[in-house]
Amino acid sequence: MLKNEVVSVEVGAEPAKTEEIHAPRKPVYCFFKRCFDIIFSFLGLVVLFVPMLIVALIVIIDSPGASPIYVQKRVGKNGRVFNFYKFRSMVPNAEQMLDSLLHKNEMDGPAFKIKDDPRITRVGKFIRKTSIDELPQLVNVLKGDMSLVGPRPPLPREVEVYTDRQRARLEVTPGLTCYWQVQPRRNNLSFDEWLELDLKYIQERNFKVDIVILFKTFAAVCGQEGE
Length: 227
Hints:
By secondary structure, the chain is mainly alpha-helical. The protein has one domain (27-222). The protein contains nine helices and four strands, in the order ααββαααβααβαα. The strands form two sheets. Strands 1-2 form a two-stranded antiparallel sheet. Strands 3-4 form a two-stranded parallel sheet. The longest helix is centred in the first third of the chain and has 21 residues, at 27-47. The protein is globular.
């Protein structure tokens, strides 16, 4: 088991494939982090209620007949599956189209990502670029499925092919934002680089790190550095 000392991780460094990673126990930090999540996710939902309602209406106009909120199964802490909420940014049959696009995957490892995904709608391109599509996840944070800061929650099909090292991402509550989210040109990073950033966060996580990531996320959103 990895001791509780912080290990500095260089992006792009070759991971030690056989090393087991375990999240240090931080009960006091976790308690106050949960309090912080409840307060700020609730305030965020209150303040952003009207803007979110407007976005929902625009999505409905852009994709008639489809729900403006896309509900997807994701995997959280300790492998618990939960309903993950986003504003719809893809066509209603996006999941059915996935198999025909897998051969175009530009991300190594279990994750899937392609540039100019044909499933993304006109409105979807904008709300992804500005990260507006992620706002409904404040509900996930309020419910306790997610935290404001933590590794992004993976899909069940991704977790099915995880190695032991990759499963370490599931030892903490997933989040709205993380080290990966605030990297310049984050979509150019390999899955291994993404993983190392998540493992770095798991070892280093504390209030200072969380606040820094939140401020950097705000800057990234203002700079429209989303997908």
